[in-house]
């Protein structure tokens, strides 16, 4: 029997790239479940709502329950609600659907920034700057430097835009997604393995955003895949050696079920 009881899986770049599943990923997920491994999906995807993300994954052929998906977008909304913020949301329209029940009137008390290529222009960044200078809190859904927009193309992520606002305002943003320890703990608690993190694998294509920070601090098994945003020798960037690096998610699963 495998020592792996649970798996936290990154989505974009690991299970799929844009609208294409990575090689044999659909079958690999079935294999992982058949081995009795409890699965949760942990993603910093912020370009679309959770419901649209779920629909996309099922269309690609993945078998999953909506409740198995933990997104940084949901974590950001939870933080906004907890503090009764009136946020300025720099998000794509499909992601804004998740915030229709949130008061977004001025004066804004928070700026929420995610991956939003159509919204991160000078005018909107200046609106965010003004709100922050007037006392709003900066909430970064994640700080990725770049992401895989297609199989062979990397594009700039939201991290640089968050850093620009921090530099201009002198404020430090609050991060809610990976690699925050608290984000992983939500998923671990849901699968009943919060007290056994060493029996849980985190699989992703980003050695820092997926496998650093909280994943390292909690003692998760940290597995890197050479798909998505992976670049040659990324594994060398890890502060603590990884538990494995594999060409694809499917290859990682083969190892996980026999560990």
Can you describe what's shown?
InterPro entries: HAD-like_sf, HAD-SF_hydro_IIA, HAD_sf, LHPP/HDHD2, STAS_dom. Keywords: Hydrolase, Magnesium, Metal-binding. Belongs to the HAD-like hydrolase superfamily. It holds the Pfam family Hydrolase_like. One of its GO terms (cellular component) is cytoplasm. The protein has 259 residues and is an alpha/beta fold. It folds into 2 domains: 6-44 and 178-256, 3-Layer(aba) Sandwich (Rossmann fold); 83-175, Rossmann fold. 32% of the residues lie in helices and 20% in strands. It is built from 9 helices and 14 strands. It has helices at 25-34, 50-59, 72-82, 93-96, 122-133, 159-169, 181-190, 213-218, 249-256, and strands at residues 6-9, 16-17, 20-21, 38-43, 69-71, 87-90, 110-113, 137-140, 146-150, 153-156, 174-175, 200-204, 221-225, 244-246. The strands form 4 sheets. It has a 6-stranded parallel beta sheet, sandwiched between helices. Strands 6-7-8-11 form a 4-stranded parallel beta sheet, with helices on one face. Helix 1 (25-34) runs parallel beside helix 9 and helix 5 (122-133) crosses helix 6 (159-169). The N and C termini lie close together (8 Å). 45% of the residues are buried.
């Amino acid at each position: 029997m495998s020592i792996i009881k649970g798996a936290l899986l990154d989505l974009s770049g690991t299970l799929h790239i844009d609208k294409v599943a990575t090689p044999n990923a659909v079958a690999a997920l079935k294999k992982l479940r058949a081995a009795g491994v409890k699965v949760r999906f942990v993603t910093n995807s912020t370009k679309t709502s959770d419901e649209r993300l779920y629909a996309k994954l099922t269309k690609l052929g993945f078998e999953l329950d909506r409740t198995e998906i933990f997104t940084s977008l949901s974590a950001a909304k939870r933080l906004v609600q907890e503090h009764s913020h009136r946020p300025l949301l720099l998000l794509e329209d499909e992601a804004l659907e998740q915030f229709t029940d949130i008061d977004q009137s001025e004066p804004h008390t928070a700026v929420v920034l995610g991956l939003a290529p159509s919204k991160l222009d000078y005018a909107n960044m200046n609106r965010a700057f003004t709100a922050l200078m007037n006392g709003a809190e900066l909430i970064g859904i994640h700080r990725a430097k770049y992401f895989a927009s297609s199989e062979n193309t990397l594009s700039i992520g939201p991290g640089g835009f968050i850093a620009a606002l921090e530099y201009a305002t002198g404020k430090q943003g609050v991060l809610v997604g990976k690699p925050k320890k608290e984000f992983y703990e939500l998923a671990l608690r849901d699968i009943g393995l919060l007290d056994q993190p060493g029996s849980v694998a985190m699989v992703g294509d980003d050695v820092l955003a997926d496998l650093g920070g909280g994943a390292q601090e909690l003692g998760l098994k940290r597995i890197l895949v050479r798909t998505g945003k992976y670049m040659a020798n990324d594994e060398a960037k890890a502060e603590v050696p990884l538990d494995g690096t594999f060409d694809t998610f499917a290859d990682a699963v083969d190892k996980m079920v026999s560990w």
